[in-house]
Amino acid sequence: MIAAALSISAFMSSIILGTAGHIDHGKTTLVGALTGMETDRLAEEKRRGISIELGFAHLDLGAGLLAGFVDVPGHERFVKTMVAGVTGIDIVLLVISADESIKPQTREHFDICRLLGVRQGIVVITKADAVDPDIVELVKLEAEEFVSGSFLEGAPILAVSARTGAGLDDLKLAIRKLAANSPSRASRQPLRLPIDRAFAMKGFGAVVTGTLTAGAIQPEQEVELQPAQRRLRVRGVQVHGKPAKAAHAGQRTAVNLAGIEHTDLTRGMVLTTPGALRPVSVLDCQLSLLPGVKPLRSRTPIHFHAGTAEVVGSARPLADGFARIRLREPLLLLPGDRFIVRKFSPVITIGGGEVIEIDPPRKSRVARLAPLATPGRAALLIKESIHGISKADLLWRLGEPATAGVEIGAWCVDSAWLESKHPELERTLTAYHKDNPLKPAMPREELRTRVIPKAPPALFEALLTRNKKITAQGDMVRLTSHKVELQQDEQDARAKIESAFEQGGLAVPSQREVLAASGVDGTRAAILLATLLKEKKLVRVSADLVFHHTAIDALKALLATHKGKPFAVGEFKDWTGCSRKYAIPLLEFLDRERLTRRDGDSRVAL
Predict the structure, then answer these.
(1) Same domain for 47 and 172?
(2) Fewest CB within 10 A of the end CB: N or C in the chain?
(3) Greatest mean pLDDT among 64-68, 165-169, 365-369, 482-486
(4) What is the pLDDT of residues 471-509, one digit of tens each?
(5) Cα-Cα-Cα-Cα dihedral of 464, 467, 472, 477, to 10°?
(6) Which domain CATH number covers 314?
(7) Are residues 41 and 166 in the same domain?
(8) 159: in domain
């Protein structure tokens, strides 16, 4: 969105670092010293000397690595902003001031990082130049004890001075080592860009920023804004402040959007792949409470933080560390997402956890939640669905493409279910053929209704295609081995029916007369007639007029001798020797077959 800027190299990988720590411990100053960028952008932030909103900067670490920094406010009043910033980071810089050591927001920020599943970090002792070296060593020991038993146990603990620059090179080296070993982001998942800032840019319109947590985004792409469920077009993309052909998971990204005002965009919304994901209001989760927090009661009111969003909700403990959470407003969530829970009043962090299932069944069954927290959850979802599940729904329920069960077209079914349905189809057809020996096949829809009435038609069609013992033709289905075997009286009746129409030429008797004289009951006679029609030995011209194919073939040959010539009904009657009773239905049949074309009161043979 800044035309003069250079584009980001397609070969440069990105990681996201976030700061955490108490107010006035030097987080913003540290980021500025590392990157040369000032992250406090609001006038009030500069006047008061504290961070209120999220700040952003970036640093080229060399060797194809680019670090994006998210600087969070340390004041207790802005913890919810801090949570929005820490979500999605790869590495945390836990900032502790040498002149104050560990303070309340140090503890709360660190708890939040642990609950959100941050796995890597560095403890940074700032303002090392403001105290004696012995004090710095003492604070290092306190920090080491503080992080013992956590993901930061054994992590580098480095003392720096943003004012003098002491220790900054060692800090950059430590960051580079961690960044080089950071796992890649979820590129297989649908696009997800949690919005942490929205604003208008003169000449461009609405712009949003965020850390791209999954997928990729590029100019002219269509995206969906959730939970508003609005389709939008991407005008332009920037990565770390520079125009890019595409942004990928793990990069700080700015997106210029068309078709919306920036006032309709707020922190907590998400840009995603159109139609892939849906917002939810109910979720089952693993919930961990911080030490000293009393167990939650049923429907305890909470503040729920996930991604960059904050929503009021309620929590109902289940068992074995699981809980059900209901949200007042829907959020775009996926299994595996981490979240923070804060007490409703006073607003303090009390716990957090991981989403296990979105849009769960109405009745809680704790026994199924543990398997859903494992890699085998795709197979479980498929197995417990009556007729399997579509790949699209499985993607939504899991957040990424999954290989499980048996794929049939766009559907995934349980292998045991599949094994049971093929014999059931065959048994149903066998019974139908036995009960209807004169019928060559069973109506397709009747078979589907009997065997899998609530399954999607596409799944039924795929089942038929996969079964070599079944033959499907048009709207009829039969066992491949099935053949109609006529009794002697039925063979005689069939011959009588065909002969009656053949002898009639173009002046055939009525269908009712022929069937009544066939020698078998009306039901069997009708089936025999239908069989002759299907075999094209007879041709239906109107509801009650059926002709033998030889008569129709002779009529076509006659018309061929008059090709291109107009003729009237009277002439047609003279050529064929049939009365108007037969002439009009025959001409209408010929019109439908495109053998003649009506032209006023005349027709033309084609």
Answers:
(1) yes
(2) C
(3) 165-169
(4) 988 888 999 988 877 778 888 888 999 999 999 999 999
(5) -80
(6) 2.40.30.10
(7) yes
(8) yes
